[in-house]
Amino acid sequence: MKSKLNREDYQFRKKTGQELIKNPGQLNGLDFVISNCEDCTIYICDHAAQIFVDLSKNCKIYIGPVEGSIFVRKCENIEISAASSQFRVSNSNNIQCFVYTSSDPALEKSTGIVFAPYNFAYPGITEAFGKAKLDPTNNKWSEVFDFTPNNEISNWTLLHPSQFHLVSKSIEGLVESEQCPVLIPITYGGTCDKKIILGSADQKTSGLELDFLMGKENVKNQQQLSDENQVYVETQLISKNQTNSKEQQNLIQGNQVEFVFDAESFKSTEPQINVQSINTFNAFDEIVVDNQFNIQNSNLSQQMQKDESERKLKEQKRKQAQEYLQKFMSDFTEQTNQRKTQNRAIVRENVQKEQGWKTVVSNIDLKDNGGEKDVSKMAQAIKNKLMDRLK
Questions:
Q1: How many beta carbons lie within 10 A of that of residue 95, not counting itself?
Q2: Which GO terms describe its molecular function (predicted)?
Q3: What is the tally of structural domains in the chain?
Q4: What residues contact residue 22 under an 8 Å CB cut-off, 6+ apart?
Q5: Do 372 and 286 share a domain, yes or no?
Q6: pTM value?
């Protein structure tokens, strides 16, 4: 007989200022909940069925492969690394998302959302991807679908390449952390040359390829700069990490290793980078601005078309209502006239019959009433006649 699961083992609730971790084998493909956490660093180093992140703020959350969905709801100022079949953010603000997802990421009623490729690794993560039935090569992190787009400014954007970093969590007693199995685009210092698609193809604003937005020459420069950055990392940062003492490792914080492509790093490699490459990040900024501008114009045009369609629909319904009312009144009048005619015929027929008023009145001795054809007296006479028959 299986032992009963303890609910507390599958949730982090109401935690403040703590480092929290679930090690490999502690979830084994079950659900997990992160709720009401603040100023925490959270590691989920195992595969899960689905994960909920609710009502949390000022946290860093790193999640391993999830077979189903990861939901982020009512959160703010969160950095999250998430790998799942589906990734959804709702009613949240200022969320930095390092995402792997095999379907289009979805937003709803959220602002200030930034997307970047998945960046998390820990011992056994490659095996965990297999258990979660996720293909690391099929990542749609940038194909965002926004259910509630903003007509003035986009609710989401891509992370600037200079801010991209890798996060590796080591676990005591296990082998060294593996590399992140998800392919990282050249733009972000990786080796994947797959084109980055901005926006969901299912969105009314079609997804646009990076080549189209930046131009092929700018993309070429961006790739060249990424290659140079990678060389710099391999020749400078890694060698320093191997030779320097722990006190000198300025890229290691606790067990979390970050490779940050910051402004100072680029400045230090200035002699290795040509003028075109230096300007590439500016081109990357322009792509986001242009994309937002295109989205704004497209949304405005779509809103005008929607308003016109609604106006035409209302006008059509108004005409249909008028036609229906006219037909109803015409049919009602006709039926009323028919009923009046039928009622007159019935009255006429009844009057002509023996049980009609004519027969009743003729059978009343008007002499009993003084010979006067007074209506009230006639009515009383009829009543008296009826009472006599009932005796």
A1: 22
A2: GTPase activator activity; nucleotide binding
A3: 2
A4: 32, 43, 44, 45, 46
A5: no
A6: 0.56
CATH number where 22 lies: 2.160.20.70
**Which alpha helices (H) appear in 98-252, and where do they start and end?**
125-131, 210-214, 216-232, 238-243
Asked if residue 119 and residue 60 are part of one domain, the reply reads yes
Secondary structure (3-state) at 47: coil
User: 317 vs 122, 219, 307, 312, 324, CA distance in Å?
Assistant: 61, 52, 15, 9, 10
Asked whether 142 and 198 are in contact (CB, 8 A), the reply is yes
Q: Is residue 260 part of a domain?
A: yes
List the structure tokens of 318: 């108004």
Nearest C-alpha neighbor of 196 from the set 155, 152, 157:
157
Does residue 99 sit within a domain?
yes
Q: Domain of 358?
A: 353-390
Q: What are phi and psi of 253, to 5 degrees?
A: -125, 105
How many residues belong to the chain?
391
Amino acid at the residue 367: K
Strands (E), 137-244: 145-146, 156-158, 167-169, 197-198, 208-209
The reported pLDDT for the residue numbered 142 is: 92
Q: SS3 string of 250-275? A: CCEECCEEECCCCHHHHHHCHHHCCH
Question: pLDDT (tens digit, 9 = 90+) per residue, 71-96?
Answer: 999 999 999 999 999 999 999 999 99
